Automatic annotation (TrEMBL):
<dbReference type="GO" id="GO:0005524">
    <property type="term" value="F:ATP binding"/>
</dbReference>
<dbReference type="GO" id="GO:0046872">
    <property type="term" value="F:metal ion binding"/>
</dbReference>
<protein>
    <submittedName>
        <fullName>Glutathione synthase</fullName>
    </submittedName>
</protein>
<dbReference type="GO" id="GO:0009432">
    <property type="term" value="P:SOS response"/>
</dbReference>
<dbReference type="GO" id="GO:0005737">
    <property type="term" value="C:cytoplasm"/>
</dbReference>
<feature type="domain" description="ATP-grasp">
    <location>
        <begin position="92"/>
        <end position="289"/>
    </location>
</feature>
<keyword id="KW-0067">ATP-binding</keyword>
<keyword id="KW-0547">Nucleotide-binding</keyword>
<dbReference type="InterPro" id="IPR011761">
    <property type="entry name" value="ATP-grasp"/>
</dbReference>
<dbReference type="GO" id="GO:0018169">
    <property type="term" value="F:ribosomal S6-glutamic acid ligase activity"/>
</dbReference>
<dbReference type="InterPro" id="IPR013815">
    <property type="entry name" value="ATP_grasp_subdomain_1"/>
</dbReference>
Amino acid sequence: MKKIGILFGKERSFPEAFVQRVNSKNIEGIMAEPVRIDKALQGQPSGYSVIIDRISQDVPFYRTWLKNAALTGTAVINNPFWWSADDKYFNNCLMTQIGVPVPKTAIIPSNEHPDDTSDSSFSNLAYPLDWEAIFNEVGFPAYMKPFAGGGWKHVYRLNDKEEFFEKHRETGQLVMLLQEEIVFEEYYRCYCIGGKYVRIMPYEPRNPHHLRYVADFSPTPEKLQEMTEIVLKINSYLGYDFNTVELALRNGVPYAIDFCNPAPDADIKSVGAENFEWVVETAANYAIEKAQANQPGTDNLTWGRYVKESAGRLI
Ligand SMILES: Nc1ncnc2c1ncn2[C@@H]1O[C@H](COP(=O)(O)OP(=O)(O)O)[C@@H](O)[C@H]1O
Ligand SMILES: [Mg+2]
């Protein structure tokens, strides 16, 4: 029997529906359940062929537990090593190298010193930074947001440099991106599962939370194709099995705004019944596919083109 597990936090609608959907397909040799951990000992297999990880971003214990699971043959969705390595700044930088349009972006040292450091730890940083060059590049209004993280937390829209300095003082030890505002005509949130299944969902971030997915943008088939290709390209380089990409269209050009969401919101109350059905069905089918392809005791993770090409140069 190949077991598929799901590891999750407070969310309820997606994990339950996912487990039920996999089991309702009655595929011989496959079953799904919520992951259960009652001990964690090094080098021992997890017992799961596939685990969908929805929570290790908030639980470091789970992240390292998943790395051992991956080492001992579990296909962890998403790859816990890559998820530990990347961040929104690096991912933006990568996009500049592979031709995916992204807003102009700078990274800003944290306003407060990280714990256990002081002024003398920062001999390599110019003080003050060349703010004029940074502001000229990014322009105002600008967005400021954490370089790692999500959930629309600590996201600021800033009108000028005075506001930047004022708000930056509120961000403590967070490392923030300062980013060009994309003034968009249309906005899309795009699910990508298995690096191949894409669902482009019109999304209006300016609406209140419960109405964001009721935007009525209707892209042409050509635009849908272009956005699909961008979504696939991003995920093929990052190597995420389960991710959402936010695209803002300015003068028809899709800019990737937020594309590191390896535990994307899948709640029926926010995405709506039709999108929820797509996510549950597609995730169930993909997990079954991964379980059937699983070769016990080997690396069953997905690795992105960035890592594969870098590693390939060393061999
Ligand atoms: N550069 C930008 N231009 C225009 N809108 C932006 C930009 N960056 C963020 N936003 C807005 O802020 C929201 C939250 O920012 P996002 O990058 O998605 O962070 P999070 O990972 O917290 O969701 C986006 O959905 C979008 O509406
Ligand atoms: Mg977002």
